[in-house]
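Components:
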Amino acid sequence: MITLKDVSKTFTLHNQGDGQSGAVIPVMAGVSLSVAPGECVALTGRSGAGKSTLMRMIHGNYLAASGEILVGGLDVAKASPREILALRREVLGYVSQFLRVVPRVATLDVVAEPLLTLGIPATEARARAATLLARLNLPERLWSLSPTTFSGGEQQRVNIARGFIHPYPAMLLDEPTASLDAANREVVLSLILEARARGAAILGIFHDEDARARVCDRLLDVTGFTPGLAA
Amino acid sequence: MDGAEMSIYARMKGAEPLLSVRNLSKFYGSRIGCADVSFDLYPGEVLGIVGESGSGKSTLLSCLAGHQTPDEGRIAFDGRDMIAMAEPERRRLARSEQAFVHQSPRDGLRMGVSAGGNIGERLMAVGARNYGAIRETALDWLGRVEIDGARIDDRPSAFSGGMQQRLQIARNLVTAPRLVFMDEPTGGLDVSVQARLLDLLRGLVRDLGLSVVLVTHDLAVVRLLAHRLMVMKSGHVVEQGLTDQVLDDPQHGYTQLLVSSVLQV
Ligand SMILES: Nc1ncnc2c1ncn2[C@@H]1O[C@H](COP(=O)(O)OP(=O)(O)OP(=O)(O)O)[C@@H](O)[C@H]1O
Ligand SMILES: Nc1ncnc2c1ncn2[C@@H]1O[C@H](COP(=O)(O)OP(=O)(O)OP(=O)(O)O)[C@@H](O)[C@H]1O
Ligand SMILES: [Mg+2]
Ligand SMILES: [Mg+2]
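Structure:
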């Protein structure tokens, strides 16, 4: 479902470094990996090794310098913006570390939005959003408020609800349990296990080792893809 | 599973762009307004255009909307050549299928006419005649842009800046255009009013399947509204792509400067 072949990434900072070409920073090279439907794979490696960078390339947020990134048959490394938008809408879910939303929009609508873009009627989309928010123990009095003023853990649960509202066949999870208490962490782990059981291909970053052990089928250390760090 | 996913791309392959622009240039004497601009815009897409003051954003927009004639290049709207088209036909098309939201509501509204009249006038321009139906539609649109229906007979001069801008949007969208041009639609409004307008525009784009070309200097606005982004400098497009990709992983030195010179967007 997710297959990378010999992917590399460099950042060229044009306004830094000396000379005309700026500073060229190679951050990943020779990345090949594959995640099958119904499989959950954890990316590991020390801070700065490139875990988030790899995930952002699969999401189409960072441009790959070379290689192939196949998600559900689309090569994200060469796809047009339009194709990547369709991929994100229908195939590839993403729970990022931070929530980014239009200020003043109610939490319930923030969570329902991915369904609205799929053409699902607003009443049904909101009902599904409510079910998920309730399951994540987000107090109902917060649903009509914008999440911009929420605590870190509340925002994260809104983000998770957005990522799990549609049964995406492929999912990227960047630290989904980072700022949650024990009870909510359990809810998120069960959401991940359910997604895996229905056949989603999941790639995640978990600093929580116990969480990783419970939901992931295998680990993939990205250090081997970090130029200058590979053993 | 892969078969089903593939079909979404197959579905897309068949779609035709609503607006197709090739090698568009406009010169003011020896000065470049915009040069060699090319892009395709598909139904339901919002294209953001950013760049420093004087980079050619408004020039490009006014050529696209037919307010100026480009010196070179081609513009096709729904497959029809907009430059070769006879003027009356172009005007009719611009009135019925396109709309232009100005930065200043004063340029897009008739300040001496009531709010309802501002909306109704557009409907009449495309052939509506029934007074009751026109007023009904005007009321419905005031509601959609969150203006109290009781204000229908007030003139826009009695409205706040944010309300005027929402009225301008209602006036432009009431005829159900397929393509909307916007030049700094949230400029000059305070931040919380901007947020509400952004949310409104997002909902309208999604529910009506509008295509939008949006000029702004505000990267936070394009981040939230535009699917794709085009960066202009000195009349030229220096970079274009998926909005979040261009903002988070800019490839051109100018875009990197633009992104790094604002606090986190
Ligand atoms: N937009 C960017 N521009 C320049 N360099 C970047 C950019 N994004 C990431 N990097 C660099 O790429 C490298 C990998 O960063 P990344 O965020 O992927 O690490 P990580 O493994 O997720 O670390 P952490 O565990 O701390 O989140 C770092 O050296 C980082 O500075
Ligand atoms: N009517 C005109 N006559 C002569 N030069 C013009 C005219 N309109 C624009 N220009 C010039 O064309 C260039 C592009 O101007 P334009 O208004 O398109 O910039 P812009 O990107 O919209 O800037 P801003 O962000 O300040 O609105 C500038 O150098 C400007 O001085
Ligand atoms: Mg990271
Ligand atoms: Mg301008």
